[in-house]
């Protein structure tokens, strides 16, 4: 007589071990609590990845626990060493501490709970599924895609949930003998292996989510696929097997997985395993035309983490912004104690926002501006340099060619009473220091703003010869301004509105200031002009003025 175990043996003839054997191989961790991040190989790091990665790793680290990276590549997306490396580098860049990670090609035994690449764990899934078959909690299924589509179409017409269950699954209730016969006819081949869900159509379940507390849901009664046509596991099966064998205590994952929890609870029970704690943080949304919507990979450049780095925001600030989204208490704490590290902030899952978090670029700018205004000039120099090395190597070279000069240029008006808080992004720093370097001047000058026509060559020559004789950059700003006014009075520049109203003054001193800005900085908007001149030094200022050919 054929038994259920025989069916399991025919389906997975090479699998000899049991779930209990695997459990022994991967015993509970010394530090029993552990979190993970499970990206799929997309070649793109979503802001959400940074959010969950930061949350899971901070949560693990603050409790001296483990945070590991496991790659989800069973969707047959092409996995490359390059991609794993990108993820690890990005995480490192954002100071996310990873304790265990995949070592290419994924079967290196570096940490106890290896391998960390799903496609390399195929055997483990087979052990589990084989045991589920022998317990009659899973079954091989031969329904084709066309048959399934037909069933779904009918269900939709009858307003039923389009799931495969009970009478909708042709093999679910076949006898052992019938299944054995079918396996024989097909040489042991089948379309997929399905879960024989114990769920009930009318039942509701309550489970505890660490962030959302008690959650009510309808039970799962879908006989989901556990092993696909390519003999790789689905997300659901891999989720249960991996997080048990890798001894994960807290599953922190996107809200979209919340509806799968009833199924996952059934699967853990079917495999006779304890259930990890679930944490489903709220989605990150953005407002568009007054409506909230999910950040879209296609439409929103800010969905890609690269955006923030490339578009010039400092890493520390991005981390702080992520922490703000994680906890509104962090926002409060940071505003009151800006000098404290985000690492000193204890994340409490049960205090996290259940409601959607808004991704607000205006607020981001204000956080970033605050951060950039707060840090020391040395630190701002270092961070800009690190950014420039990757995104503008020429700027990095220039910055290093005269670090003191660069720092003086960055430092203009910073941390003074009149501090205009000039920088929100690295691009602002770039724009405001590039003109200081002589080698850049010519190129920048090509696109200089237009000057009033009064500034002809004769006038400029005349001015430069007078001004270079008296220019003294050690004077106070006020003195220097008066001195400049004196020189220019000769050229019919009014120094104030009252003078301007008199007929013989044709131009205002502000036109002159604009002239100097353009000649010295190649821009009409610059940091405080006299400070710029002071940083440049007299020789450079005179040289730039003399060089000008109109
Ligand atoms: N690769 C899955 C995703 O990106 C991971 C889900 C999980 O964290 O378990 O949605």
Largest sheet: 3 strands, antiparallel
Name the beta content range: 5-15%
Give the C-alpha Rg: 33 Å
Average pLDDT metric: 89
**What ligand molecules are bound, each kind once?**
glutamic acid
Low-confidence stretches: none
CATH class of the domain at 448-546: Mainly Alpha
Give me the side-by-side strand order of the main sheet. 3-4-7
Topology, number of strands: 14
Class from helix and strand fractions: mainly alpha
CATH topology of the domain at 448-546: Arc Repressor Mutant, subunit A
Large-scale geometry? elongated
So, CATH architecture of the domain at 448-546?
Orthogonal Bundle
Distance between the termini: 102 Å
How large is the count of helical segments? 24
Instruction: State the helicity in percent bands.
Output: 40-55%
Attribute tags:
single chain, 550 residues, mainly alpha, Arc Repressor Mutant, subunit A, three-stranded antiparallel beta sheet, three-stranded mixed beta sheet, 24 helices, elongated, binds glutamic acid
């Amino acid at each position: 007589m054929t038994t259920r175990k025989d069916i399991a043996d025919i389906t997975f003839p090479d699998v000899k071990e049991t779930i209990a054997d695997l459990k022994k191989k991967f015993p509970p961790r010394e530090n029993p609590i552990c979190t993970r991040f499970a990206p799929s190989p997309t070649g793109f790091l979503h802001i959400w990845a940074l959010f969950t990665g930061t949350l899971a790793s901070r949560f693990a680290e603050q409790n001296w626990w483990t945070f590991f990276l496991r790659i989800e590549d069973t969707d047959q997306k092409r996995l490359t060493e390059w991609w794993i490396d990108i993820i690890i580098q990005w995480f490192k860049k954002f100071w996310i501490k990873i304790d265990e990670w995949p070592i290419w090609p994924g079967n290196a035994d570096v940490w106890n709970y290896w391998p960390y690449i799903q496609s390399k764990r195929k055997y483990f899934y087979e052990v589990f599924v084989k045991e589920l078959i022998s317990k009659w909690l899973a079954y091989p299924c031969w329904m084709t895609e066309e048959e399934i589509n037909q069933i779904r179409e009918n269900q939709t017409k009858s307003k039923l949930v389009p799931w495969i269950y009970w009478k909708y699954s042709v093999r679910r209730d076949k006898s052992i003998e019938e299944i054995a016969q079918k396996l024989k006819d097909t040489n042991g081949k089948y379309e997929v292996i399905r879960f024989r869900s114990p769920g009930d159509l009318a039942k509701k379940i309550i489970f505890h989510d660490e962030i959302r507390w008690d959650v009510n849901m309808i039970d799962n009664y879908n006989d989901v696929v556990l092993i696909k046509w390519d003999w790789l596991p689905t997300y659901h099966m891999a989720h249960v097997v991996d997080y048990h064998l890798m001894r994960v205590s807290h599953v922190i994952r996107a809200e979209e997985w919340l509806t799968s929890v009833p199924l996952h609870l059934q699967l853990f029970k079917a495999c006779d395993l304890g259930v990890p704690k679930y944490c489903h943080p709220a989605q990150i949304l953005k407002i568009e035309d007054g409506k909230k919507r999910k950040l879209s990979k296609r439409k929103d450049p800010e969905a890609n983490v690269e955006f923030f780095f490339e578009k010039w925001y400092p890493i520390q600030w991005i981390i702080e912004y992520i922490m703000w989204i994680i906890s509104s208490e962090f926002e409060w704490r940071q505003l009151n104690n800006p000098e404290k590290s985000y690492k000193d902030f204890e994340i409490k899952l049960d205090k996290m926002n259940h409601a959607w978090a808004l991704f607000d670029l205006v607020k981001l700018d204000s956080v970033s501006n605050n951060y950039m205004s707060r840090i020391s000039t040395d630190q701002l120099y270092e961070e800009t340099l690190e950014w420039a090395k990757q995104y503008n190597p020429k700027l990095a070279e220039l910055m290093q060619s005269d670090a003191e000069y660069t720092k003086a240029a960055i430092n203009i008006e910073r941390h003074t009473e009149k501090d205009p808080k000039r920088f929100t992004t690295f691009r602002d720093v770039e724009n405001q220091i590039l003109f200081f370097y002589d080698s850049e001047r010519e190129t920048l000058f090509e696109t200089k703003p237009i000057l009033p026509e009064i500034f002809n060559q004769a006038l400029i020559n005349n001015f430069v010869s007078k001004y270079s004789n008296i220019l003294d950059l050690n004077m106070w700003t006020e003195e220097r301004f008066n001195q400049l006014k004196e020189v220019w009075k000769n050229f019919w520049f009014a120094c104030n509105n009252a003078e301007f109203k008199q007929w013989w003054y044709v131009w205002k001193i502000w036109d002159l200031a604009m002239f100097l800005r353009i000649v010295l900085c190649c821009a009409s908007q610059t940091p405080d002009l006299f400070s710029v001149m002071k940083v440049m030094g007299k020789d450079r200022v005179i040289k730039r003025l003399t060089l000008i050919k109109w």
